[in-house]
Each structure stands twice: as structure tokens, then as C-alpha cells.
UniProtKB/TrEMBL annotation, chains A, B:
<dbReference type="GO" id="GO:0022904">
    <property type="term" value="P:respiratory electron transport chain"/>
</dbReference>
<dbReference type="GO" id="GO:0003824">
    <property type="term" value="F:catalytic activity"/>
</dbReference>
<dbReference type="InterPro" id="IPR016167">
    <property type="entry name" value="FAD-bd_PCMH_sub1"/>
</dbReference>
<comment type="similarity">
    <text>Belongs to the FAD-binding oxidoreductase/transferase type 4 family.</text>
</comment>
<keyword id="KW-0285">Flavoprotein</keyword>
<dbReference type="InterPro" id="IPR016164">
    <property type="entry name" value="FAD-linked_Oxase-like_C"/>
</dbReference>
<dbReference type="InterPro" id="IPR006094">
    <property type="entry name" value="Oxid_FAD_bind_N"/>
</dbReference>
<keyword id="KW-0274">FAD</keyword>
<dbReference type="Pfam" id="PF01565">
    <property type="entry name" value="FAD_binding_4"/>
</dbReference>
<dbReference type="InterPro" id="IPR016169">
    <property type="entry name" value="FAD-bd_PCMH_sub2"/>
</dbReference>
<protein>
    <submittedName>
        <fullName>FAD-binding oxidoreductase</fullName>
    </submittedName>
</protein>
<dbReference type="Pfam" id="PF02913">
    <property type="entry name" value="FAD-oxidase_C"/>
</dbReference>
<dbReference type="GO" id="GO:0071949">
    <property type="term" value="F:FAD binding"/>
</dbReference>
<feature type="domain" description="FAD-binding PCMH-type">
    <location>
        <begin position="47"/>
        <end position="228"/>
    </location>
</feature>
<dbReference type="InterPro" id="IPR004113">
    <property type="entry name" value="FAD-bd_oxidored_4_C"/>
</dbReference>
<dbReference type="InterPro" id="IPR036318">
    <property type="entry name" value="FAD-bd_PCMH-like_sf"/>
</dbReference>
<dbReference type="InterPro" id="IPR051264">
    <property type="entry name" value="FAD-oxidored/transferase_4"/>
</dbReference>
Length: 485, 485
């Protein structure tokens, strides 16, 4: 944030620009001054920055007009949905040169076609609100993540959000049928089809999914909907080791067909952490096991899901793969099991600043990776606590490292930095990804760039220049794009 | 094919270029003269053209060398897999200016990791051979289409192939985890990861899937593998109308969870056509119904698939949605049911030249579209036969039109052209796609271009120029890219 301290003359220029935006777009669309603060703070509240203004359009046409007006002033644009991202993709980093365009006013469901199992929805609708509206129509939108009460669907698309149902339904990319995008020149890419199959050449919409707003602003999305899961069976299982969790997953893939909707692993400390955040949580099962799996099977209609879970567990317990387990017999019990998974995150937050990672490795190497990476951290930083959990079927681990309490912030940050280096070093040997689901944004940019092969860097630059030659769309995010001289 | 008649001096130039390729790449890699004919004829055998040479590299390094050598000679490249495409995407159209690069020698499976449910495979392996190798390892690769005994996996990726299992497993795009691509400058994009989740920014590989070789040559692919479907239940059902087939599909989506692997509709004439090609086929069920559905449920493990099919059919027959049906009780019977679906295509081919379409519409509008499009054709061309069949769950119809026998080729072609115009006219009103799964290639290029919105055209051109500024990669396919002057 090298321009946080804006000089007097710069402030005058900024004021003139705000005035120009107000004239061109209307007062109601433009926020400036203290009203912009909410849009310039990241989700964790760690980073507060600023922007020339925040523009809040109500329609695609207004987004287009805003993009043209901002571009004409020589300013650049930071598109923003719910601003719940974890990598600073929607947080401005140049207070004197950037305008935030917030999609929060574009919340309409343009169409919800039950017979087509599809919906067309504007980018600014909050995910949980959309899920509720779909449910009220008798269908189901499977994207599910911790921030769903605040994140917005356009942000989910721009970050290709993951979550707990990826195993069954894929990342956001696999749920998207079409997109409407305002491009850096203000023109509108209208690709809001709901066709299931459309093989007319290069699939342009794919470029914008996961681009974190660097190629354009997603203004509307058409998505697949599913039959609701009328039956859900949730089980918490105690195992001998993480490697057994991998073996159990492979077994479950076959035994439960494609009906698994979640398969999460957790360490024993998960329960301690969860109860630090939620002391009233009832321990779900007696005993203490080296590894835990939280597993969900779900389906609609004629398959007896509870019976499937029972017969599956019977088999794997007879074979010694699962030592003990508890199956929820009510929705309340199932929620209690999931509360440990969610409470574990809150418990980590309560312990103070710590390293959050979001890495992925090939599924067959998950247990080896966790073992090696934890060993590397524990050997170099024996006072730290490793908490590894995640989505087994996706090869996605959140290997977090908690420094001990009572250190200075400087010392804590140093431990976090060291731990990240150690984990990324091990990750390299496994050909893993430093960002399985959170994206790159500004936070992971330098790590991303340092690992980027030259051919990929060349392609990304060529595409950026082809679509955004003035480099006005979310500069500073993902890559450092140099303007043409 | 305006350069079919190559003049003497042009032939001399061509010979010199072939010689230059031989010197640079080695004799063994370069075919010329009559040996190239096989590579210059389309799958239907309707179109025969020519090429300066055919280059058959054995490795990614040799593909890279070939691309550099061909580019240096000022020639362009037509990448080719099994050459089984239906839209002339891999058939050269400039015999004096193009070199075919065939991937047929790159057939290795580089890695098959059962515990990771993934494989890394070279572009030239024949699909059915790959499927067999995967099956031998105890897993399953779900891509399944008529040409699987000849098509090659690189072509499947480049055309984003569909087929009969899209309903359950998606198009080829959804099966691809990573790609290796030789770019137009000969550099190698190495993205052969098998990570399930990798959200490091823009997903470059998506650009090459469905690009039909216009942005580079796919040389290797990493793909998802699945547990094999140990149980398969196949049923042929008689219904009152196509609209009932749509209603039946919606019911099946709920009742059978995500376990349906095929849901095809066929008209009564399917059986006549199939028996014209295969006279020995036993009629599967008595009676004659206005519409038929061929449905498959499959799974592994603990779900009783036969029982699920029985209970599903009991419900829908009680409700009058299905009038009669037959469930295969053996693999041989199931093959017999599928033989009608496949024989129907052969029967159409035996009746001579006809219009083959491959359109898609929103699922909820499928029956209306077929009814309106058939009515439009029958009213204008009452002597023609409409044969509509396809993949209900994908909204994908092959609405084919067979002119009467005994006409001149010219008159037949005229009827085909008229019928296409009528169908595309109706399709426009349904916001449908002229290519649900076959691609654009050269055959559908003019229809594609005429329906292309300006913003999309601008983006496609910008991306093409960014990645292939010399326009040497499959020019003439998908769009008419003008070289920079």
C-alpha cells in the first residue's frame, strides 16, 4: 500500500475525478470518502486501504457506463462482490488510482426454470439467498461454503469457488452454463445461455471463471440446478491414520457410487479447537482416534440412503478400516457433526494470527504430503501447532500452522512466514498447488509468479493484453501486468 | 477447394518445401504424395483434398520441431487425430499451403494411477484402446461415442467430444484435469497436472478444449477416471409422446438420483431404419408407440441397480407415463437394445445423402422445438422423412432429414440445404445451438459466423491473434482469421 498517504494535490485530483463520475453516472451510483471504507477492508479485517470512489450500478447497462467513465478518467477498476475472498482479490491496493465497482445492487433472479433445471441470476445476489430461493422452487443449488451468507454469486464465479460439495458437484466452473460479462472497453459479452451442450468452438466464458475480475466484470450467470437431496446420511468416523482415510475414500467411491456429497478429514485437535470456540458443543463420540472423517451420502427418490450408509459402515468396520463411528439420526445431530468442522476454524481464529494454507496434491499422495509437511514444520518450529484438515476426494488440504501464544506480532509473523516456506518447499516435490480453491488475488501473487513457467506467463500476458490492453481491470491482482509503453 | 488444381510451378515449390521438411525433421517423419491421401479425406468420404505433406511426430519434442519447421517455411498446420470429426475440423482445405500434423504415433499411456483415479496419456491413443487399458486396471473412462474405435483422445479434447454418457459424466471438458499443448511458436505449454482442484488464476487449458486445433496442438492429456459401473440396467420404454419423454426424464432425475448414465429418445421409425441396416435384429418389444426412450442406470458397489430400475418403472407405469417397456436381463440383451440406437444411424446412411443436424435447446423446450421444426420441414418439404433422436438430458437433438430416393444429387443437395435453413430458422427462436457436440470445423463455419455476436467475434479474434499471431494453426477452421497486413 505504497500510496496510502495521499498528498494534498493528489486529493484534489481525486476529488475532481469523483465529481466527474458523479456527473456522468449520477450521484446515487457513486460513494466517496468514509462511505467507501466498508469496501476497502478485507474479509479478515487485517488490511484496510482506500479507493478514489465506489460505484454501485443497478444494471448491466450501468456497469457498462461505469467502466467506460472510469476508463476515460484514466483510473482502473476493482470489481467486488461480497468481498469475502481470502486472498485480497477484491480489495483495492492503489487508493489514488482505483475505483471499486460493487455488484451488490444487482440481485435479481432473472429466470428460474424448474423444468430446465436452470436459473439466470445477477452477480450480486448473496449465495445463501439464491440457494433459499431455489429451494423454495423445489430444486437445489449445490455450491456450499462458509461465507455463503455474505459472498455473492458473481464473486463465486470470478474466484471459481469450491467448498464442501465439490466432490459430488464440482467447482463453480462445473455449475456455470453461461455468463454475462462487461469487458474492459465497456462492451457486453452476452453469453447467458442455459444450454447443457453447446460446442460452438472456443468456450469464451471459461476465461472469466477464476480470472478474479482481471478480464472483465461478471454481471450475470446462468447455472445448473439439481434435484434436492431429500435424504442425507451424515457420519463421523474414527480411524487409525490419515492413510486409512484415503483408503476409506477409495472404498466409498466404489461402494457408494456417485452418491457421496462430502468426505472431510480432521485431526483429533479439531474437537479441542471447536470447543474453544463453542464450549457447549457435545462431544459426538467417546474415545480418541488418530484421524477422523466426516462423511455425507445424499440423494433423492428411490435409493435408500440411510440403508446405504449402514451397509457401507458395516463392511468397513468389519474390515477394520473404521474403528468407531456415529451416524446422525436427525438433522439436528447432523448439524452438530458439521459444527465441529466449522467450529474448528473459529477456534483457530481465536488463538490469534496463524498460517492458513489451501494446497492440493494428487489424491494418492495426500497422506504422504501431510506427513512430510507436518514433519518439516515440527522439526524446524517445534513450538507451533499443525492443524491439517480438508477435502479428501479433492486432494485439498488446509495445513494450518498456529504459533504459540504470547509472542510479539513480529515474531508470530516471522513464524508464519517460515512455516509457509517449509510447506511450499515440500509441496513443490509433490507437484501440488498453492491455491486449491481460494485463488491468487494479491495475497498469493508473488508465490504464484515465482512458480509460474515462462510459457504460462507469456500466455497469460498475451490474453490480458488482448482483452484489456489498457490494463484497467483489477490491476495488481494475479499478475503484475505492465502497461505498454 | 479453390487450389485443388496445383500448377506445375506451384508443385515445384511444394516439392522444395517437402524436401526442406525432410532435411529438418528426418525422412521418417514426413509423408508426401499418394501416402498423404488417407489424411486428406473426411470421415464420411465425401470430401477429398490434399496437403503439402503429412508429418507424423513420435514425441512432444518432435511436434515442437515440426511446428517450428513448418512455420519457418511459411506454411500452415492442420492438426489431426483420428480424423473422425463430422465437421471437417481436421481436413485440410489448402493443398498448396497446409501441412497435416498427425498425432497417430503418440499413443503412450505415460501414467495410470489407480489410487489417484487419474491417467496421463498421449494425444494419439485410440479412445477404445485407452478405455480397454483403463478397464484392465480396474477403472473406467466414461467418454463413449460411435467413433471410439478410431477417434483419438487428443481429437476428443480438441473437439470437446460428447457422446452417450454426457448426462452422467459431462463433456470431455469435464473429464480433463490437465493438458500439454504445443503452441504456434513451437513452445510447449506443460499443464499435465492431475490435481482435482487447482485455482491458480485463469485456467489456460480451457482455451484449448474445443478449439479444434486453432490455438495449438494437444499432445497429451491428463484425465479423471471413475470406478467401473459393475451393475448396469438398460431399458427400452414405449411412450405416448416426446413430451412424455421429457416428463419421464425429470421424474428419473429425482427417482434415480445421479445414477442415470443414458437417456436417449428415438422415434418409431428408428426400428425400421435399424433393421434396414441390420435385418437380423430382433424386435425388442411388441406394439408400436409414438415415442421411445432408451434408458440406462448404472453404478458400482452397494446400490442395487436392477432393483432401482424395477421400482422406478413400476412407479412410472402405474402413473401412465410409460406404456410398455423391456428391461435387458443380460449384457447381450442390453447390447441388442443399443444396436437399434446405433443401427438407426447406419440405416439412415444406407438411404443416401441426408441432412444430419446436431442442435441443442433448453431442456424444457425440447419437445416444442422438435414438434415445430419437424412441422416446418414437413410443410415445406412433404416428401422428406424427419428422424429426430438424441440425448434428452442434454437437450441435444439430432433432427435429421432424409430426402426421398431416386432424386438427382443436385436435387437432393437442394432439399438438404432447404431443410437446414428451415430447422435453423426455428432453432433461432429457441436460442438453440447449431452445434451441440460436433463442433464447428469448416462445415459449420459460415452458419457459425453468421450467428456470431460482434463482441464474441472480437474476443475470438483478439485471442487468436494473441496466441497465433502468424495465423498458422488450422486456418480456415472455426473462423476466417485475416493475417495482419
Amino acid at each position: 500500500m505504497d500510496r496510502e498517504d495521499v498528498s494534498g494535490s493528489e486529493r484534489g485530483v481525486a476529488d475532481a475525478r469523483v465529481e466527474a463520475l458523479r456527473v456522468r453516472l449520477g450521484n446515487d451510483l457513486v460513494l466517496s470518502g468514509p462511505a467507501t471504507e466498508h469496501y476497502c477492508r478485507d474479509w479478515h479485517g487485517d488490511i484496510t486501504t482506500g479507493a478514489v470512489a465506489v460505484v454501485r450500478p443497478r444494471s448491466t447497462a450501468e456497469v457498462s457506463a461505469a467502466v467506460k467513465a472510469i476508463g476515460a478518467l484514466g483510473l482502473s477498476i476493482v470489481p467486488q462482490g461480497g468481498n469475502t475472498g481470502l486472498v485480497l482479490g477484491a480489495t483495492p491496493d492503489d487508493p489514488a488510482g482505483q475505483v471499486v465497482i460493487s455488484l451488490e445492487r444487482m440481485t435479481a433472479i432473472r429466470r428460474l426454470d424448474v423444468d430446465d433445471f436452470s436459473a439466470v441470476v445477477e452477480a450480486g445476489i448473496v449465495l445463501s439467498e439464491f440457494k433459499d430461493r431455489v429451494e423454495a422452487a423445489g430444486l437445489y443449488f449445490p455450491l456450499a461454503l462458509g461465507a455463503q451468507g455474505s459472498c455473492r454469486i458473481g464473486g463465486n464465479v470470478s474466484t471459481n469457488a469450491g467448498g464442501i460439495n465439490v466432490l459430488r458437484y464440482g467447482m463453480t466452473r462445473e455449475l456455470v452454463l453461461g455468463l454475462e460479462v462487461v469487458l474492459p472497453d465497456g462492451s457486453v459479452f452476452d453469453g447467458l445461455s442455459t444450454l447443457r451442450k453447446d460446442n460452438r468452438g472456443i468456450d469464451l466464458k471459461q476465461l472469466f471463471i477464476g480470472a478474479e475480475g482481471t478480464l472483465g466484470i461478471v454481471t450475470a450467470v446462468s447455472v445448473k440446478l439439481m434435484p434436492p437431496a431429500e435424504q442425507v446420511a451424515t457420519a463421523l468416523l474414527g480411524l487409525n491414520a490419515l492413510s486409512d482415510a484415503i483408503a476409506l475414500y477409495r472404498r466409498a467411491r466404489r461402494d457408494c457410487c456417485d452418491l457421496m456429497s462430502a468426505f472431510e478429514f480432521m485431526p483429533p485437535v479439531a474437537f479441542t479447537l471447536a470447543r474453544e470456540a463453542m464450549p457447549d458443543l457435545a462431544m459426538p463420540m467417546p474415545g480418541d482416534y488418530p484421524a477422523y472423517v466426516l462423511m455425507e451420502i445424499s440423494g433423492s427418490g428411490l435409493v435408500d440412503i440411510d440403508d446405504l450408509m449402514q451397509r457401507f459402515l458395516q463392511g468397513v468396520m468389519e474390515d477394520g478400516l473404521v474403528l468407531d463411528g456415529v451416524v446422525a439420526v436427525s438433522r439436528a445431530q447432523a448439524r452438530n457433526l458439521w459444527a465441529f468442522r466449522e467450529g474448528m476454524n473459529e477456534g483457530q481464529a481465536k488463538r490469534g494470527p496463524h498460517l492458513r494454507t489451501d494446497v492440493s496434491v494428487p489424491l494418492s499422495k495426500l497422506a504422504d504430503f501431510v506427513q512430510q509437511a507436518e514433519a518439516a514444520v515440527m522439526s524446524a518450529l517445534p513450538d507451533c501447532l499443525c492443524v491439517s484438515y480438508g477435502h479428501v476426494g479433492d486432494g485439498n488440504v488446509h495445513l494450518n500452522v498456529l504459533p504459540p501464544a504470547g509472542l510479539t506480532r513480529e515474531k508470530t509473523d516471522q513464524l508464519i512466514y517460515q512455516a509457509k516456506g517449509l510447506i511450499n518447499g515440500v509441496l513443490l516435490g509433490f507437484c501440488g498447488s498453492i491455491s486449491a480453491e481460494h485463488g491468487i488475488g494479491r495475497l498469493k501473487k508473488s508465490d504464484f509468479i515465482s512458480g509460474l513457467p515462462q510459457t504460462q506467463a507469456h500466455l497469460l500476458n498475451a490474453i490480458k493484453r488482448a482483452i484489456d490492453p489498457r490494463i484497467i481491470m483489477n490491476p495488481g491482482c494475479q499478475l503484475n501486468f505492465a502497461k505498454d509503453s
